[in-house]
Write a structure and sequence with these properties.
With 299 residues, this protein is of the alpha+beta class. The protein folds into 3 domains: 1-32; 72-143, Signal transduction histidine kinase, dimerisation/phosphotransfer (DHp) domain (Helix Hairpins), CATH 1.10.287; 152-296, Heat Shock Protein 90 (2-Layer Sandwich). 57% of the residues lie in helices and 13% in strands. It has 7 helices and 7 strands. The strands form 2 sheets. Strands 2-4-5-7-6 form a 5-stranded mixed β-sheet. A two-stranded antiparallel sheet has the order 1-3. Helix 6 packs antiparallel against helix 7 (260-270). The longest helix has 57 residues, at 51-107. The termini are far apart.
């Protein structure tokens, strides 16, 4: 009997010591998490044998690593955003300063052709600033998480035709005629009509601004591709074309805010579509792939 009591007492003692050790180790781990420097790379260790505490330490360290990575990415994104805003601010101030200068010159001129030229130059620069602000507004709308799009079957060709018609003067000025080839002129995609028009508008405007030849536009199923030659293909990074504020022109000598294709990517994502870019030689191709059900197509 005494032997059993002694054995039971030893068992209780072992359990108590084990529980105390577990509490102590858990308390030590909790203290580490509460007091650790968030900027440090310190990692949790365990002093308890067995796989349980080791697995727990690994899991916690994995979460710490993920949190640190997210923090670094957020800081990097914030720095990039601030740099982009500084560049955009420069782009806006430049035409504004130019317009102000021409207006001041016009004020010092008597009525006549000289004053008219100064005022026309001022209007031209104010128009450029309006384009920049319009692009920024369009991007903020596309990024608005509360904005809702009315997705419905939309026939692509009429929307594209309206956009191309709006740019007729620019095409005529360059002597260009877009080559449009639709596999099915009644092809419908799931889209918001206004958003689809904005997407086509921005892609066509990008081709006019940066291309050196008339765009070739081809449709196949739910995909539509816009292709044309560019002046300096070596300056293009196709992996960054849809980034916010990306400009292939490092000197930023051409008009634009680098937001047109970023708006395209945002609106495509909101509609479950995809925007891709490829470069072969000097031919830049932007392919938009929408959700497409052939049953929707108009006959």
């Amino acid at each position: 009997m005494m032997g059993w009591l002694l054995l039971l007492g030893l068992l209780v003692l072992v359990v108590s010591l084990t529980a105390w050790a577990y509490r102590r180790e858990l308390g030590r781990m909790a203290a580490f998490l509460r007091t650790r420097d968030r900027a440090s790379n310190g990692r949790l260790t365990t002093q308890m044998p067995g796989p349980g505490f080791a697995d727990l330490a690994r899991a916690i360290n994995g979460e710490l690593d993920a949190a640190s990575a997210e923090k670094r990415q957020a800081a990097q994104a914030q720095r990039a955003f601030q740099q982009d805003l500084a560049s955009l601010s420069h782009d806006i101030r430049t035409p504004l300063a130019g317009a102000k200068g021409y207006i001041q010159l016009a004020l010092g001129e008597p009525e006549g052709p000289g004053r008219d030229r100064y005022l026309a130059s001022a209007v031209e620069r104010l128009d450029a600033m309006e384009v920049l602000l319009g692009s920024l507004f369009a991007y903020s709308q596309a990024r608005d998480p509360e904005a809702t799009l009315d997705l419905e079957p939309v026939t692509m060709l009429p929307v594209l035709a309206e956009v191309l018609a709006g740019h007729c003067p620019e095409f005529e000025e360059r002597g260009w005629e877009p080559a449009v080839a639709f596999e099915d002129e009644g092809a419908c995609v799931q889209a918001d009509r206004a958003a689809l028009a904005r997407i086509f508008e921005n892609v066509v405007a990008n081709a006019l601004r940066h291309g050196v030849s008339a765009p070739a536009i081809r449709q196949c199923g739910g995909a539509i591709a816009f292709e044309n030659a560019v002046a300096d293909p070596a300056a293009l990074d196709v992996d960054r074309l849809f980034e916010r504020f990306y400009r292939a022109d490092a000197a930023r000598s051409r008009p634009g805010a680098g937001l047109g294709l970023a708006v395209v990517a945002e609106l495509c994502a909101a509609m479950g579509a995809q925007a891709d870019a490829t470069l072969e030689g000097d031919r830049l191709s932007i392919v938009l792939t929408f959700r497409h059900d052939p049953i929707m197509d108009l006959s």
